[in-house]
Amino acid sequence: MPTPVRPRSAWQDLDLATAPADGPVAFGDDLGPRNLLDAYRCGLYPFPAATIEHRLLNELSYADDVSAGRIPVQAGSRDPYGVAWCSPDPRPVIATGRAHVPRSFRRQLRRSGWTTTVDFCFQQVVDRCREGRAEHWLTDELMASLTRLHVCGYAQSVEVWDGEDLIGGVFGMRIGAVFSADSQFTLSSGAGRVAVVELSRRFAEAGGVAVDVQRDSDHVRLLGAEPVARRRYLALLRTPHPPAPLPTGRRAVELLAD
Predict the structure, then answer these.
(1) What's the pLDDT tens digit per position in 182-191?
(2) Minimal CB count within 10 Å: which of 79, 80, 158, 214?
(3) 188-205: b or e for each residue (b if 16 or more CB lie within 10 Å)?
């Protein structure tokens, strides 16, 4: 029996070689699960306009670029400026197993008594990541697609616990040998950092090569992120990767201090 061929994605025709290094590389309003997954596979992530004002700002800021063809709009979009699709160049990436744990933080981890899990409460992690944010880029439509992709095994979460209390977490999309981390939250100091470090450790065990943290900052640099050229990042997405699942058992956080 012939191997089924996955339909070609429209994102595969997007030329990122000449796309802007900062800001949107494309616009389009399709946040359906299939289009979302295809976008991540092609090195993009979405930033929806959660308000009319945000949508108008997109249009005012980038209409000239769209008209000139420098920023394309995905075919079939009814609200062309509803979602900005981003692919920064360079991209901050943490090589798996090399997330940084400062010596002073290790002492805290040994005393914390915290534990971690994987995919124990994905929806709660996403909900927590949306709470208290000035711009709710995690719109209802995007969250619904992420939940669907979680059921299908693509979107995953790492949780950090203090006893029975969820105190931190991170979620994102696993694309072959790369895990693209969308967002994290922290309710106890350092818990969000623990989630990212644990994600890196567990993904390394599954055969992953990199955790993409999407947006550069001093915070992600402290975690061990290093800027990677877009062409290199796209090559990482094409790295052959055996279909090994992330280890899901509960683990003591003090193991990260070793």
Answers:
(1) 999 999 999 9
(2) 79
(3) eebbbbbbbbbbbbbbbe
Phi-psi region of 81 (alpha: psi -120 to 50; beta: other; left: phi over 0): alpha
Question: Which phi and psi (to 5°) does residue 45 adopt?
Answer: -140, 155
**CA nearest to 74, candidates 137, 21, 139, 24:** 24
Q: What single string gives the DSSP state of each residue in the chain?
A: -PPP-PPPPGGGG--GGGS-SSSEEEE-----HHHHHHHHHTT-EEEE--SHHHHHHHHHHHHHHHHTTSS-B-TT-SSTTSEEEE--SSEEEEETT-----HHHHHHHHHH--EEEESSSHHHHHHHHHTT-SS--S-HHHHHHHHHHHHTTSEEEEEEEETTEEEEEEEEEEETTEEEEEEEEESSTTHHHHHHHHHHHHHHHTT--EEE--S--HHHHHTT-EEE-HHHHHHHHTS----PPPP-S-EEGGGGG-
pLDDT at 221 over 80: yes
Amino acid at 6: R
State residue 3's pLDDT score.
Answer: 42
CA dist., res. 48 & res. 233, Å (int): 23
Provide the pLDDT for residue 258: 76
Mean pLDDT across the chain:
91
Q: How far apart are CA 161 and CA 243, in angstroms?
A: 28
Pair 208, 179: CB distance under 8 Å: yes
CB 248 within 8 A of CB 205: no
Write down the pLDDT at residue 211. Answer: 95
Tokens standing for residue 149: 């992709």
Is 0.85 surpassed by the pTM of this model?
A: yes
Neighbours of 214 (CB within 10 A): 19
CA distance 53 to 42: 29
